[in-house]
Amino acid sequence: MKKSGLFAALLAMLGLQMQSCEYGCPYTTFKTNGTVQDENGNNIKDAKVSVKIDIITDKLDPAERHPDTIKCGKQTVFTNRKGHYETTHKDIDDVDFKKVNYEVITDKDGYEPDTIRKEVNKSEIRFKDGDTWETIASHKINIVLKKNK
């Protein structure tokens, strides 16, 4: 048996795999938070906030025509009594990225619905370490709703 095969067999017996992340791979959790207020600066409780993010990576798509995009789906939450919200998109494979596209849809009875589309460069996102393999990337988006007329 060659040395590389012996090494791979030894690692397999120890429960380690050479091309697997079973025991931990770096990942990023994207958090979006902010406050929902009315035009007078009053916090709005129980507003429905849906956040969708798309991560634009540094690598090109398979056809190598434009940057690859990781679509992270939509998270929906309701604001607390202070008008604060926070969404979490978890366990996104750790990739180099250029920017994040946000779509924030807010709805509350008595107010006009609002949609914010925002493109944010990597330099505008706050990073901190989370658990062992986790990096937390957070960005704040505050929302102002207009009362229905």
Please give a quick description of this structure.
The protein has 149 residues and is mainly beta.
Can you put this structure into words, describing what you see?
The protein is mainly β. It has one domain (23-145): Aromatic compound dioxygenase (Protocatechuate 3,4-Dioxygenase, subunit A), CATH 2.60.130.10. Helices cover 7% and strands 54% of the residues. The chain contains 1 helix and 9 strands; from the N terminus they run H-E-E-E-E-E-E-E-E-E. It has one helix spanning 3-13; strands spanning 27-38, 48-60, 67-78, 84-93, 97-107, 114-121, 126-129, 134-140, 143-145. The strands form 2 sheets. Strands 1, 4, 7, 8 and 9 form a 5-stranded mixed β-sheet that branches. A hairpin with a 4-residue loop joins strand 7 and strand 8.
> In terms of per-residue confidence, which ranges show pLDDT below 50 for 5 or more consecutive residues?
none
Succession of helices and strands: HEEEEEEEEE
Tell me how many strands there are.
Answer: 9
Radius of gyration, whole Å: 21 Å
Total helical elements: 1
- For the record, the CATH class is Mainly Beta
Which structural class matches the secondary elements? Answer: mainly beta
Percentage of residues in strands: over 45%
Helix content: under 10%
CATH structural architecture: Sandwich
CATH T-level fold name: Protocatechuate 3,4-Dioxygenase, subunit A
Domain module count:
1
Average pLDDT metric? 84
Main sheet specs: 5 strands, mixed
Q: What is the CA-CA span between the terminal residues?
A: 79 Å
The CATH superfamily label reads: Aromatic compound dioxygenase
